[in-house]
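#struct-pred
JK: can someone run the complex with calcium ion? inputs below
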Amino acid sequence: AKESGRSGYQFYTEQMHIDAQQLVELEQDLRSALKNNEFKLVYQPQVELETMQITGVEALLRWHHPQKGLIPPDKFIPVAESSGLIVAIGAWVINQACGQLRYWHDLGFEQLSMAINLSARQFFQKDLFATIAQAIAAHGIEAGKVEFEITESMMMRNIEEIVDRLHHIKTLGVQLSIDDFGTGYSSLSYLKRFPLNKIKIDRSFVRGLPDDSDDGAIVEAIIAIAHSLGFTVIAEGVETAEQLSLLATKRCGEFQGYYFSKPCSVQALSALLLEHLPK
Ligand code: C2E
Ligand code: CA
Ligand code: CA
Ligand code: CA
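RT: done, structure tokens with the ligand placed:
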């Protein structure tokens, strides 16, 4: 037992060492990624259920590592967050996404909105307001067509501070939505105090539709709460026609997911817009 215990321990420390090493490497590479132009945004359509028209897109970050290839955001964003690099990367995302929105508006898709993800560190950073204001001014876009997604788990700190920050950002005229809704533990009384426009139902609840009756009940409840508070609702992770028709019966306004389109390049999205958005 002692033997195996010790080898177990050694194995554990070796793992830890490798993981720590990889983390250090990842962080080092992230430091140079911005100036080496290794980031790119892809865009996933947000679609109105009733009309099947694209109302907006969500900007999603991609990192093309020169040696390791494509690294998914779930892997590098936590590292960017813990190292503080997310502030500079996030500012790049905001500026890039606003520039892209201007391009699509100029093509005639003037109703299109752009959803941008914010991380916790970014949200609580002092310069965020100025970063957003500058990007909107620099690209000359309508602020109301820019939407920021914050996750429910970010909203669990000091409520007064969060409410203040949200109101401050809202003075710019932008929209705010709450992402991954249902996975955190935000109290409904807090939700009422947040100046939100939209709730995004987390894809973990959409996955089980239409067969899982618990997921069905949760989705229905979230939609009812959202509507009673005056928020619009979007379901994420919609992959099948069956999921979509169930969401339609529950009066979900919009959806996002592979069923309609995966996140795509500017070129591919422009083609989709031509088909699904009247000029
Ligand atoms: P998220 O904000 O919840 O984004 C939705 C994720 O679900 C995206 O993964 C998207 O590609 C994926 N997805 C969309 N439709 C479907 C579907 O039908 N089925 C399935 N299985 N997945 C679907 P992605 O692009 O890998 O991003 C993962 C997460 O990384 C995002 O989750 C977000 O939390 C974070 N992220 C991405 N870009 C940014 C960014 O610019 N800034 C920050 N702070 N976080 C970002
Ligand atoms: Ca999101
Ligand atoms: Ca989400
Ligand atoms: Ca998510």
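RT: quick notes.
Residues 180 surround calcium ion (ligand 4) (CB under 6 Å).
The first helix runs from residue 2 to 33.
JK: thanks, will look after standup
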